[in-house]
Protein backbone atom coordinates (compact mmCIF):
# COMPACT_ATOMS: atom_id res chain seq x y z
CA UNK A 1 0.00 0.00 0.00
CA UNK A 2 1.29 3.41 -0.95
CA UNK A 3 0.02 4.75 2.40
CA UNK A 4 2.56 2.61 4.26
CA UNK A 5 5.47 3.40 1.98
CA UNK A 6 8.12 6.02 2.65
CA UNK A 7 7.97 8.98 0.30
CA UNK A 8 11.41 8.14 -1.12
CA UNK A 9 10.50 4.50 -1.81
CA UNK A 10 7.29 5.56 -3.54
CA UNK A 11 9.17 8.15 -5.59
CA UNK A 12 11.83 5.66 -6.71
CA UNK A 13 9.11 3.23 -7.78
CA UNK A 14 7.41 6.08 -9.65
CA UNK A 15 10.69 7.12 -11.28
CA UNK A 16 11.48 3.55 -12.41
CA UNK A 17 10.43 2.13 -15.75
CA UNK A 18 7.96 -0.24 -14.09
CA UNK A 19 4.46 0.51 -15.41
CA UNK A 20 3.00 1.27 -11.96
CA UNK A 21 2.56 3.45 -10.00
CA UNK A 22 1.92 6.03 -12.69
CA UNK A 23 -0.06 9.17 -13.45
CA UNK A 24 -3.28 7.84 -11.90
CA UNK A 25 -1.67 7.29 -8.51
CA UNK A 26 -0.03 10.71 -8.74
CA UNK A 27 -3.46 12.27 -9.41
CA UNK A 28 -4.91 10.53 -6.36
CA UNK A 29 -2.02 11.73 -4.22
CA UNK A 30 -2.66 15.29 -5.44
CA UNK A 31 -6.16 14.83 -4.00
CA UNK A 32 -4.67 13.66 -0.69
CA UNK A 33 -2.42 16.75 -0.62
CA UNK A 34 -5.38 19.03 -1.26
CA UNK A 35 -7.44 17.39 1.48
CA UNK A 36 -4.57 17.63 3.98
CA UNK A 37 -4.15 21.35 3.21
CA UNK A 38 -7.89 21.92 3.70
CA UNK A 39 -7.69 20.12 7.02
CA UNK A 40 -4.71 22.24 8.07
CA UNK A 41 -6.38 25.57 7.21
CA UNK A 42 -9.58 24.46 8.97
CA UNK A 43 -7.58 23.57 12.08
CA UNK A 44 -6.07 27.08 12.07
CA UNK A 45 -9.59 28.53 11.90
CA UNK A 46 -10.44 27.92 15.53
CA UNK A 47 -10.61 29.95 18.74
CA UNK A 48 -12.61 32.95 19.83
CA UNK A 49 -12.18 34.90 16.57
CA UNK A 50 -13.71 32.06 14.57
CA UNK A 51 -16.37 30.90 17.01
CA UNK A 52 -19.20 31.98 14.68
CA UNK A 53 -17.99 29.67 11.87
CA UNK A 54 -17.24 26.55 13.92
CA UNK A 55 -20.36 24.77 12.62
CA UNK A 56 -18.83 25.03 9.12
CA UNK A 57 -15.25 24.28 10.16
CA UNK A 58 -15.79 21.05 12.08
CA UNK A 59 -17.41 19.13 9.16
CA UNK A 60 -14.56 20.30 6.90
CA UNK A 61 -11.98 18.76 9.23
CA UNK A 62 -13.86 15.44 9.42
CA UNK A 63 -14.44 15.36 5.65
CA UNK A 64 -10.79 16.14 4.83
CA UNK A 65 -9.55 13.28 6.98
CA UNK A 66 -11.94 10.92 5.11
CA UNK A 67 -10.81 12.32 1.75
CA UNK A 68 -7.16 11.67 2.59
CA UNK A 69 -7.96 8.02 3.36
CA UNK A 70 -10.07 7.60 0.22
CA UNK A 71 -7.42 9.22 -1.98
CA UNK A 72 -4.71 6.87 -0.69
CA UNK A 73 -6.97 3.90 -1.48
CA UNK A 74 -7.56 5.26 -5.00
CA UNK A 75 -3.80 5.44 -5.54
CA UNK A 76 -3.55 1.70 -4.72
CA UNK A 77 -6.65 0.91 -6.76
CA UNK A 78 -5.15 2.67 -9.78
CA UNK A 79 -2.01 0.56 -9.44
CA UNK A 80 -3.72 -2.82 -9.43
CA UNK A 81 -6.35 -1.96 -12.04
CA UNK A 82 -3.62 -0.75 -14.39
CA UNK A 83 -1.77 -4.03 -13.81
CA UNK A 84 -4.97 -5.87 -14.87
CA UNK A 85 -4.99 -3.81 -18.06
CA UNK A 86 -1.36 -4.71 -18.78
CA UNK A 87 -2.17 -8.38 -18.27
CA UNK A 88 -5.07 -8.01 -20.71
CA UNK A 89 -2.74 -6.55 -23.37
CA UNK A 90 -0.37 -9.51 -22.81
CA UNK A 91 -3.02 -12.12 -23.66
CA UNK A 92 -2.20 -14.27 -26.71
CA UNK A 93 -3.60 -13.11 -30.05
CA UNK A 94 -2.53 -15.89 -32.39
CA UNK A 95 -5.99 -17.11 -33.37
CA UNK A 96 -9.17 -15.22 -34.25
CA UNK A 97 -10.79 -16.50 -31.04
CA UNK A 98 -7.81 -15.36 -28.96
CA UNK A 99 -7.89 -11.97 -30.65
CA UNK A 100 -11.61 -11.54 -29.97
CA UNK A 101 -11.24 -12.69 -26.37
CA UNK A 102 -8.21 -10.41 -25.81
CA UNK A 103 -10.16 -7.42 -27.17
CA UNK A 104 -13.08 -8.20 -24.90
CA UNK A 105 -10.83 -8.44 -21.83
CA UNK A 106 -8.99 -5.20 -22.79
CA UNK A 107 -12.34 -3.39 -23.13
CA UNK A 108 -13.48 -4.63 -19.70
CA UNK A 109 -10.12 -3.78 -18.05
CA UNK A 110 -10.05 -0.33 -19.68
CA UNK A 111 -13.55 0.35 -18.38
CA UNK A 112 -12.58 -0.66 -14.83
CA UNK A 113 -9.31 1.29 -15.07
CA UNK A 114 -11.34 4.50 -15.41
CA UNK A 115 -12.86 4.04 -11.94
CA UNK A 116 -9.91 5.70 -10.10
CA UNK A 117 -10.08 8.66 -12.51
CA UNK A 118 -13.80 9.11 -11.93
CA UNK A 119 -13.28 8.89 -8.16
CA UNK A 120 -10.43 11.42 -8.42
CA UNK A 121 -12.74 13.87 -10.20
CA UNK A 122 -15.46 13.40 -7.56
CA UNK A 123 -13.06 13.87 -4.64
CA UNK A 124 -11.43 16.90 -6.25
CA UNK A 125 -14.87 18.49 -6.53
CA UNK A 126 -15.34 18.09 -2.76
CA UNK A 127 -11.93 19.61 -2.06
CA UNK A 128 -12.72 22.60 -4.26
CA UNK A 129 -16.06 23.13 -2.51
CA UNK A 130 -14.27 23.12 0.86
CA UNK A 131 -11.59 25.47 -0.48
CA UNK A 132 -14.27 27.85 -1.74
CA UNK A 133 -15.82 27.92 1.75
CA UNK A 134 -12.43 28.47 3.42
CA UNK A 135 -11.59 31.43 1.18
CA UNK A 136 -14.52 33.17 2.86
CA UNK A 137 -14.20 32.00 6.45
CA UNK A 138 -10.67 30.60 6.82
CA UNK A 139 -7.92 32.18 8.92
CA UNK A 140 -6.33 34.75 6.61
CA UNK A 141 -2.83 33.96 7.89
CA UNK A 142 -2.95 30.56 6.16
CA UNK A 143 -5.26 31.49 3.29
CA UNK A 144 -2.47 30.92 0.73
CA UNK A 145 -2.73 27.21 1.61
CA UNK A 146 -6.33 27.25 0.40
CA UNK A 147 -4.93 28.23 -3.02
CA UNK A 148 -2.36 25.44 -2.67
CA UNK A 149 -5.24 23.00 -1.96
CA UNK A 150 -7.15 24.25 -5.01
CA UNK A 151 -4.02 23.86 -7.15
CA UNK A 152 -3.51 20.30 -5.84
CA UNK A 153 -7.10 19.47 -6.80
CA UNK A 154 -6.51 21.09 -10.19
CA UNK A 155 -3.41 18.94 -10.76
CA UNK A 156 -5.45 15.86 -9.80
CA UNK A 157 -8.19 16.87 -12.22
CA UNK A 158 -5.79 17.55 -15.09
CA UNK A 159 -4.18 14.15 -14.56
CA UNK A 160 -7.55 12.40 -14.44
CA UNK A 161 -8.76 14.33 -17.48
CA UNK A 162 -5.87 13.16 -19.67
CA UNK A 163 -6.50 9.52 -18.71
CA UNK A 164 -10.24 9.89 -19.22
CA UNK A 165 -9.65 11.32 -22.71
CA UNK A 166 -7.38 8.40 -23.64
CA UNK A 167 -10.02 5.95 -22.44
CA UNK A 168 -12.87 7.76 -24.19
CA UNK A 169 -11.05 7.10 -27.46
CA UNK A 170 -10.45 3.42 -26.79
CA UNK A 171 -13.78 2.43 -25.20
CA UNK A 172 -16.41 1.21 -27.62
CA UNK A 173 -19.40 0.71 -25.33
CA UNK A 174 -21.59 3.79 -25.87
CA UNK A 175 -23.07 4.34 -22.34
CA UNK A 176 -19.60 4.04 -20.79
CA UNK A 177 -18.12 6.36 -23.42
CA UNK A 178 -20.79 8.99 -22.77
CA UNK A 179 -20.38 8.64 -18.97
CA UNK A 180 -16.64 9.25 -19.38
CA UNK A 181 -17.31 12.25 -21.63
CA UNK A 182 -19.53 13.70 -18.88
CA UNK A 183 -16.79 13.26 -16.26
CA UNK A 184 -14.22 14.78 -18.61
CA UNK A 185 -16.48 17.82 -19.04
CA UNK A 186 -16.95 18.02 -15.27
CA UNK A 187 -13.16 17.85 -14.78
CA UNK A 188 -12.70 20.73 -17.25
CA UNK A 189 -15.29 22.82 -15.41
CA UNK A 190 -13.68 22.04 -12.05
CA UNK A 191 -10.24 23.05 -13.36
CA UNK A 192 -11.75 26.47 -14.09
CA UNK A 193 -13.33 26.48 -10.61
CA UNK A 194 -9.88 25.82 -9.11
CA UNK A 195 -8.51 28.81 -11.04
CA UNK A 196 -11.33 30.96 -9.68
CA UNK A 197 -10.53 29.91 -6.10
CA UNK A 198 -6.82 30.64 -6.53
CA UNK A 199 -7.79 34.00 -8.05
CA UNK A 200 -9.99 34.78 -5.04
CA UNK A 201 -7.14 33.95 -2.64
CA UNK A 202 -4.66 36.10 -4.56
CA UNK A 203 -7.18 38.92 -4.59
CA UNK A 204 -7.65 38.58 -0.85
CA UNK A 205 -3.91 38.78 -0.25
CA UNK A 206 -3.47 41.84 -2.45
CA UNK A 207 -3.99 45.44 -1.27
CA UNK A 208 -7.20 46.50 -3.02
CA UNK A 209 -7.01 49.20 -5.68
CA UNK A 210 -9.46 52.05 -5.06
CA UNK A 211 -11.49 53.96 -7.64
CA UNK A 212 -8.48 56.03 -8.67
CA UNK A 213 -6.61 52.85 -9.49
CA UNK A 214 -4.17 53.56 -6.66
CA UNK A 215 -3.27 51.08 -3.99
CA UNK A 216 -5.81 51.30 -1.22
CA UNK A 217 -3.87 50.32 1.83
CA UNK A 218 -6.07 52.28 4.19
CA UNK A 219 -6.55 50.51 7.48
CA UNK A 220 -9.96 51.97 8.20
CA UNK A 221 -11.17 51.83 11.80
CA UNK A 222 -14.80 51.50 10.72
CA UNK A 223 -15.00 47.72 10.13
CA UNK A 224 -12.94 47.15 13.28
CA UNK A 225 -15.45 49.16 15.30
CA UNK A 226 -18.36 47.33 13.64
CA UNK A 227 -16.88 43.98 14.63
CA UNK A 228 -16.42 45.15 18.23
CA UNK A 229 -20.02 46.38 18.29
CA UNK A 230 -21.18 42.82 17.59
CA UNK A 231 -19.38 41.69 20.76
CA UNK A 232 -20.88 44.62 22.69
CA UNK A 233 -24.40 43.69 21.52
CA UNK A 234 -23.86 40.09 22.59
CA UNK A 235 -22.63 41.10 26.05
CA UNK A 236 -25.40 43.70 26.50
CA UNK A 237 -27.93 40.90 25.81
CA UNK A 238 -26.22 38.59 28.35
CA UNK A 239 -26.32 41.39 30.95
CA UNK A 240 -30.00 42.08 30.19
CA UNK A 241 -30.80 38.47 31.15
CA UNK A 242 -29.40 39.30 34.59
CA UNK A 243 -31.35 42.62 34.67
CA UNK A 244 -28.09 44.56 34.43
CA UNK A 245 -27.64 47.65 32.24
CA UNK A 246 -24.00 48.56 31.76
CA UNK A 247 -23.43 52.12 32.92
CA UNK A 248 -20.57 54.49 32.14
CA UNK A 249 -20.03 57.59 34.29
CA UNK A 250 -18.13 60.48 32.69
CA UNK A 251 -16.86 63.31 34.87
CA UNK A 252 -16.72 66.53 32.86
CA UNK A 253 -15.08 69.53 34.50
CA UNK A 254 -14.33 71.83 31.57
CA UNK A 255 -16.11 74.35 29.33
CA UNK A 256 -13.92 73.34 26.39
CA UNK A 257 -16.37 72.97 23.50
CA UNK A 258 -14.44 70.23 21.70
CA UNK A 259 -14.35 68.17 24.91
CA UNK A 260 -18.07 68.67 25.55
CA UNK A 261 -18.76 67.61 21.95
CA UNK A 262 -16.53 64.53 22.42
CA UNK A 263 -18.30 63.50 25.65
CA UNK A 264 -21.69 63.94 23.99
CA UNK A 265 -20.55 61.71 21.14
CA UNK A 266 -19.57 58.99 23.66
CA UNK A 267 -23.00 59.35 25.29
CA UNK A 268 -24.80 59.01 21.96
CA UNK A 269 -22.69 56.00 20.97
CA UNK A 270 -23.34 54.37 24.35
CA UNK A 271 -27.09 54.87 24.12
CA UNK A 272 -27.16 53.42 20.59
CA UNK A 273 -25.60 50.24 22.03
CA UNK A 274 -28.02 49.96 24.98
CA UNK A 275 -25.43 51.25 27.48
CA UNK A 276 -26.32 53.96 30.00
CA UNK A 277 -23.99 56.97 30.02
CA UNK A 278 -24.25 59.48 32.87
CA UNK A 279 -22.31 62.72 32.44
CA UNK A 280 -21.44 64.52 35.70
CA UNK A 281 -20.82 68.13 34.70
CA UNK A 282 -19.01 70.24 37.31
CA UNK A 283 -18.11 73.90 36.79
CA UNK A 284 -14.78 74.88 38.30
CA UNK A 285 -14.89 72.14 40.95
CA UNK A 286 -12.40 71.82 43.78
CA UNK A 287 -10.09 68.80 43.92
CA UNK A 288 -12.01 67.70 46.99
CA UNK A 289 -15.34 67.76 45.14
CA UNK A 290 -13.90 65.62 42.36
CA UNK A 291 -12.39 63.17 44.87
CA UNK A 292 -15.75 62.82 46.63
CA UNK A 293 -17.51 62.17 43.31
CA UNK A 294 -15.00 59.51 42.24
CA UNK A 295 -15.29 57.72 45.59
CA UNK A 296 -19.10 57.81 45.33
CA UNK A 297 -19.01 56.38 41.82
CA UNK A 298 -16.61 53.65 43.01
CA UNK A 299 -19.23 52.66 45.61
CA UNK A 300 -22.24 52.94 43.29
CA UNK A 301 -23.02 49.38 42.18
CA UNK A 302 -25.12 50.65 39.25
CA UNK A 303 -22.00 52.27 37.73
CA UNK A 304 -19.52 49.99 35.96
CA UNK A 305 -17.13 52.36 34.23
CA UNK A 306 -15.62 55.71 35.20
CA UNK A 307 -13.91 58.24 32.94
CA UNK A 308 -12.32 61.36 34.35
CA UNK A 309 -12.37 63.48 31.23
CA UNK A 310 -9.40 65.79 30.57
CA UNK A 311 -8.64 68.67 30.48
CA UNK A 312 -9.28 69.53 34.14
CA UNK A 313 -9.16 73.00 35.70
CA UNK A 314 -5.56 74.22 36.20
CA UNK A 315 -5.69 74.06 40.01
CA UNK A 316 -6.42 70.31 39.97
CA UNK A 317 -3.68 67.71 40.21
CA UNK A 318 -4.89 64.85 38.02
CA UNK A 319 -2.57 62.36 39.74
CA UNK A 320 -4.46 62.87 43.02
CA UNK A 321 -7.66 61.79 41.27
CA UNK A 322 -6.81 59.01 38.78
CA UNK A 323 -5.20 57.02 41.58
CA UNK A 324 -8.64 56.88 43.24
CA UNK A 325 -10.56 55.30 40.35
CA UNK A 326 -11.49 51.72 41.24
CA UNK A 327 -9.31 49.45 39.08
CA UNK A 328 -12.34 47.35 38.15
CA UNK A 329 -14.16 50.46 36.85
CA UNK A 330 -11.09 52.09 35.30
CA UNK A 331 -12.29 51.40 31.75
CA UNK A 332 -9.84 53.88 30.16
CA UNK A 333 -6.83 52.60 32.06
CA UNK A 334 -6.19 55.97 33.75
CA UNK A 335 -5.16 54.70 37.20
CA UNK A 336 -1.40 53.97 37.21
CA UNK A 337 -2.30 50.69 38.91
CA UNK A 338 -3.86 49.54 35.61
CA UNK A 339 -0.61 50.31 33.75
CA UNK A 340 1.29 48.48 36.47
CA UNK A 341 -0.88 45.39 36.11
CA UNK A 342 -0.49 45.51 32.32
CA UNK A 343 3.30 45.79 32.65
CA UNK A 344 3.30 42.76 34.91
CA UNK A 345 1.27 40.86 32.31
CA UNK A 346 -1.77 40.78 34.57
CA UNK A 347 -5.37 41.55 33.69
CA UNK A 348 -6.36 45.20 33.68
CA UNK A 349 -8.07 47.65 31.38
CA UNK A 350 -5.63 49.19 28.91
CA UNK A 351 -6.37 52.75 27.85
CA UNK A 352 -8.91 52.44 25.03
CA UNK A 353 -6.57 54.09 22.50
CA UNK A 354 -3.76 51.64 23.17
CA UNK A 355 -6.13 48.70 22.77
CA UNK A 356 -7.61 50.33 19.64
CA UNK A 357 -4.20 50.09 17.97
CA UNK A 358 -4.04 46.40 18.89
CA UNK A 359 -7.56 45.74 17.60
CA UNK A 360 -6.72 47.37 14.25
CA UNK A 361 -3.55 45.27 13.88
CA UNK A 362 -5.51 42.14 14.79
CA UNK A 363 -8.43 42.92 12.46
CA UNK A 364 -6.11 43.39 9.48
CA UNK A 365 -4.18 40.22 10.37
CA UNK A 366 -0.90 42.04 10.81
CA UNK A 367 1.38 39.60 12.62
CA UNK A 368 3.29 40.86 15.65
CA UNK A 369 5.29 37.94 17.00
CA UNK A 370 8.97 38.56 16.33
CA UNK A 371 8.23 41.76 14.37
CA UNK A 372 9.94 45.11 14.95
CA UNK A 373 7.51 47.83 16.07
CA UNK A 374 8.53 51.44 16.68
CA UNK A 375 6.20 53.52 18.84
CA UNK A 376 6.70 57.30 18.89
CA UNK A 377 5.35 58.91 22.07
CA UNK A 378 5.75 57.54 25.60
CA UNK A 379 2.68 58.94 27.38
CA UNK A 380 0.91 56.92 30.06
CA UNK A 381 -2.26 56.85 27.94
CA UNK A 382 -0.83 55.66 24.62
CA UNK A 383 2.88 54.86 24.20
CA UNK A 384 3.63 53.06 27.48
CA UNK A 385 0.51 50.84 27.71
CA UNK A 386 0.72 50.11 23.97
CA UNK A 387 4.32 48.97 24.44
CA UNK A 388 3.10 46.52 27.09
CA UNK A 389 0.35 45.16 24.85
CA UNK A 390 2.78 44.77 21.94
CA UNK A 391 5.28 42.96 24.17
CA UNK A 392 2.50 40.65 25.30
CA UNK A 393 2.08 39.73 21.64
CA UNK A 394 5.82 39.06 21.31
CA UNK A 395 6.73 42.07 19.18
CA UNK A 396 10.14 43.69 19.60
CA UNK A 397 9.32 47.26 20.58
CA UNK A 398 11.35 50.47 20.32
CA UNK A 399 9.73 53.31 22.26
CA UNK A 400 10.75 56.79 21.05
CA UNK A 401 10.18 60.27 22.52
CA UNK A 402 11.27 63.87 22.14
CA UNK A 403 14.89 63.03 23.06
CA UNK A 404 15.25 60.12 20.65
CA UNK A 405 18.18 60.47 18.26
CA UNK A 406 18.02 59.26 14.64
CA UNK A 407 14.26 58.77 14.68
CA UNK A 408 14.10 57.87 10.98
CA UNK A 409 16.67 55.10 11.45
CA UNK A 410 14.44 53.55 14.12
CA UNK A 411 11.23 53.95 12.18
CA UNK A 412 12.73 52.58 8.96
CA UNK A 413 14.01 49.51 10.81
CA UNK A 414 10.47 48.67 11.96
CA UNK A 415 7.73 46.93 10.06
CA UNK A 416 5.06 48.74 12.08
CA UNK A 417 5.32 52.39 13.12
CA UNK A 418 2.86 53.87 15.62
CA UNK A 419 2.86 57.66 15.98
CA UNK A 420 1.24 59.19 19.07
CA UNK A 421 2.80 62.62 19.51
CA UNK A 422 0.29 65.34 18.70
CA UNK A 423 2.33 67.17 16.03
CA UNK A 424 1.15 67.71 12.47
CA UNK A 425 3.50 66.18 9.84
CA UNK A 426 5.79 64.62 12.46
CA UNK A 427 6.17 61.42 10.45
CA UNK A 428 7.37 62.17 6.91
CA UNK A 429 8.26 60.11 3.85
CA UNK A 430 11.92 60.10 4.99
CA UNK A 431 10.85 58.08 8.07
CA UNK A 432 9.34 55.12 6.25
CA UNK A 433 9.84 52.50 3.57
CA UNK A 434 7.41 50.91 1.11
CA UNK A 435 6.99 48.04 3.62
CA UNK A 436 5.99 50.27 6.55
CA UNK A 437 2.62 49.80 8.20
CA UNK A 438 1.80 53.12 9.86
CA UNK A 439 -0.71 53.63 12.67
CA UNK A 440 -1.51 57.30 13.18
CA UNK A 441 -2.84 57.94 16.70
CA UNK A 442 -2.33 61.71 16.60
CA UNK A 443 -5.26 64.11 16.56
CA UNK A 444 -4.53 67.72 15.64
CA UNK A 445 -6.51 70.59 14.18
CA UNK A 446 -4.79 72.11 11.14
CA UNK A 447 -4.84 75.75 10.01
CA UNK A 448 -8.09 75.10 8.10
CA UNK A 449 -9.80 73.73 11.19
CA UNK A 450 -9.66 70.14 9.93
CA UNK A 451 -8.87 67.13 12.09
CA UNK A 452 -5.53 65.63 11.00
CA UNK A 453 -3.08 63.11 12.43
CA UNK A 454 0.68 63.17 13.01
CA UNK A 455 1.48 61.69 9.61
CA UNK A 456 2.34 63.86 6.58
CA UNK A 457 0.10 63.30 3.52
CA UNK A 458 2.93 62.01 1.29
CA UNK A 459 3.37 58.99 3.59
CA UNK A 460 0.13 57.53 2.21
CA UNK A 461 1.74 57.26 -1.23
CA UNK A 462 4.74 55.30 0.02
CA UNK A 463 3.69 53.24 3.05
CA UNK A 464 2.41 49.71 2.63
CA UNK A 465 -0.60 50.57 4.80
CA UNK A 466 -1.78 53.49 6.92
CA UNK A 467 -4.66 54.30 9.28
CA UNK A 468 -6.60 57.40 8.25
CA UNK A 469 -7.40 60.41 10.47
CA UNK A 470 -10.30 60.76 10.97
CA UNK A 471 -11.75 57.26 10.61
CA UNK A 472 -8.86 55.29 12.07
CA UNK A 473 -7.75 54.80 15.67
CA UNK A 474 -10.26 57.34 17.08
CA UNK A 475 -13.23 55.46 15.63
CA UNK A 476 -12.15 52.28 17.38
CA UNK A 477 -11.26 54.05 20.64
CA UNK A 478 -14.83 55.24 21.31
CA UNK A 479 -16.22 51.76 20.66
CA UNK A 480 -13.63 50.27 23.01
CA UNK A 481 -14.70 52.58 25.85
CA UNK A 482 -18.13 51.00 25.47
CA UNK A 483 -16.77 47.47 25.17
CA UNK A 484 -14.68 48.01 28.31
CA UNK A 485 -17.82 49.27 30.10
CA UNK A 486 -19.78 46.12 29.27
CA UNK A 487 -16.75 43.98 30.13
CA UNK A 488 -16.56 45.74 33.51
CA UNK A 489 -20.31 45.24 33.99
CA UNK A 490 -19.92 41.54 33.17
CA UNK A 491 -17.16 40.97 35.69
CA UNK A 492 -18.68 43.18 38.40
CA UNK A 493 -22.17 41.71 38.06
CA UNK A 494 -20.80 38.17 38.11
CA UNK A 495 -18.55 39.12 41.05
CA UNK A 496 -15.78 37.71 38.90
CA UNK A 497 -12.19 38.74 38.65
CA UNK A 498 -11.57 41.23 35.90
CA UNK A 499 -12.23 39.51 32.61
CA UNK A 500 -10.20 41.54 30.15
CA UNK A 501 -7.18 40.90 27.97
P1 LIG B 1 1.43 63.51 25.18
O1 LIG B 1 1.12 63.06 26.54
O2 LIG B 1 1.64 64.95 24.91
O3 LIG B 1 2.73 62.71 24.70
C1 LIG B 1 3.38 63.01 23.50
C2 LIG B 1 4.59 62.15 23.35
O4 LIG B 1 5.22 62.51 22.13
C3 LIG B 1 5.62 62.34 24.45
O5 LIG B 1 6.10 61.10 24.87
C4 LIG B 1 6.72 63.14 23.78
O6 LIG B 1 8.01 62.86 24.27
C5 LIG B 1 6.62 62.65 22.36
N1 LIG B 1 7.19 63.62 21.43
C6 LIG B 1 6.99 64.96 21.38
N2 LIG B 1 7.70 65.48 20.36
C7 LIG B 1 8.36 64.48 19.78
C8 LIG B 1 9.26 64.38 18.69
N3 LIG B 1 9.62 65.45 17.99
N4 LIG B 1 9.75 63.18 18.35
C9 LIG B 1 9.41 62.08 19.04
N5 LIG B 1 8.55 62.10 20.09
C10 LIG B 1 8.04 63.29 20.45
O7 LIG B 1 0.33 63.04 24.14
P2 LIG B 1 -0.71 61.79 24.20
O8 LIG B 1 -1.74 62.05 25.17
O9 LIG B 1 0.03 60.52 24.25
O10 LIG B 1 -1.35 61.94 22.76
C11 LIG B 1 -0.56 61.86 21.60
C12 LIG B 1 -1.43 62.18 20.41
O11 LIG B 1 -2.44 61.17 20.33
C13 LIG B 1 -2.20 63.48 20.51
O12 LIG B 1 -2.35 64.02 19.22
C14 LIG B 1 -3.54 63.08 21.04
O13 LIG B 1 -4.56 63.99 20.68
C15 LIG B 1 -3.71 61.76 20.34
N6 LIG B 1 -4.66 60.86 20.99
C16 LIG B 1 -5.58 60.26 20.20
C17 LIG B 1 -6.48 59.41 20.73
C18 LIG B 1 -7.43 58.71 19.81
O14 LIG B 1 -8.33 58.04 20.28
N7 LIG B 1 -7.26 58.81 18.50
C19 LIG B 1 -6.48 59.14 22.10
C20 LIG B 1 -5.49 59.69 22.89
C21 LIG B 1 -4.57 60.57 22.33
P3 LIG B 1 8.47 63.24 25.76
O15 LIG B 1 7.90 62.18 26.62
O16 LIG B 1 9.95 63.20 25.67
O17 LIG B 1 7.90 64.59 26.04
UniProtKB/TrEMBL annotation:
User: The Cyclodeaminase/cyclohydrolase domain covers which part of the protein?
Assistant: 6-180
Q: Which PANTHER family match?
A: C-1-TETRAHYDROFOLATE SYNTHASE, CYTOPLASMIC, C-1-TETRAHYDROFOLATE SYNTHASE, CYTOPLASMIC-RELATED
What is the protein's name according to its record?
A: Bifunctional protein FolD
EC number(s) per UniProt?
1.5.1.5, 3.5.4.9
Cite the Pfam families for this sequence: FTCD_C, THF_DHG_CYH, THF_DHG_CYH_C
Report domain Tetrahydrofolate dehydrogenase/cyclohydrolase catalytic positions.
Answer: 219-332
What is the recorded function of this protein according to its Swiss-Prot or TrEMBL entry? Catalyzes the oxidation of 5,10-methylenetetrahydrofolate to 5,10-methenyltetrahydrofolate and then the hydrolysis of 5,10-methenyltetrahydrofolate to 10-formyltetrahydrofolate.
Ranges where the Tetrahydrofolate dehydrogenase/cyclohydrolase NAD(P)-binding domain occurs: 351-490
Taxonomic superkingdom: Bacteria
CDD domains the UniProt entry points to:
NAD_bind_m-THF_DH_Cyclohyd
**Taxonomic source organism:** Vitreoscilla stercoraria
Residues involved in NADP(+) binding: 377-379, 443
